[in-house]
């Protein structure tokens, strides 16, 4: 039985997190090709879902004044265009965990075809926007993910 009122959640396949989505008209330009900035939105949704699936509760951390992750750097290579109606999967993997940041490798895939390749650095910030050390428990969770087979 399907529960159509439950939001879609991605999940882990080994050390990679997979997040599926479909390209809608709002994601494209007049030629039906995905606008380049929308790949960043796709990857943000996938990263947020990956962090949640890893057991990191950003909502509570933000509400309690602990801090939040913010993108500090993105390096992206666009390889092929996605088009209206395409079914895509954003594949995310934790590459490196540092004291105040996490580096995540993200690829947008259409079947076996890679459309983008990106490296994203997410820094952990205090509520007033200053970098600070990530909670130790979160560092352990990210390291455990990066070491999976």
What does this structure look like?
The model has no long low-confidence stretch (mean pLDDT 94). The two termini are 32 Å apart. Strands 1-2-4-5-6-3 form a six-stranded antiparallel β-sheet. The chain contains three helices and six strands. The radius of gyration is 16 Å and the shape is globular. The chain has helices at 36-53, 58-63, 136-146; strands at residues 11-13, 16-22, 68-78, 87-97, 101-110, 113-125. The chain has one domain (10-147): Thiol Ester Dehydrase, Chain A (Roll). By secondary structure, it is an alpha+beta fold. It is 23% helix and 37% strand. One of its GO terms (molecular function) is fatty acyl-CoA hydrolase activity. Keywords: Hydrolase. InterPro entries: 4-hydroxybenzoyl-CoA_TE (IPR050563), HotDog_dom_sf (IPR029069), Thioestr_dom (IPR006683), YbgC/YbaW (IPR006684). This is YbgC/FadM family acyl-CoA thioesterase. Residues 32-115 form the Thioesterase domain.
Q: In terms of topology, how is this protein built?
A:
Layout: E1 11-13, E2 16-22, H1 36-53, H2 58-63, E3 68-78, E4 87-97, E5 101-110, E6 113-125, H3 136-146
Antiparallel strand pairs: 1-2, 2-4, 3-6, 4-5, 5-6
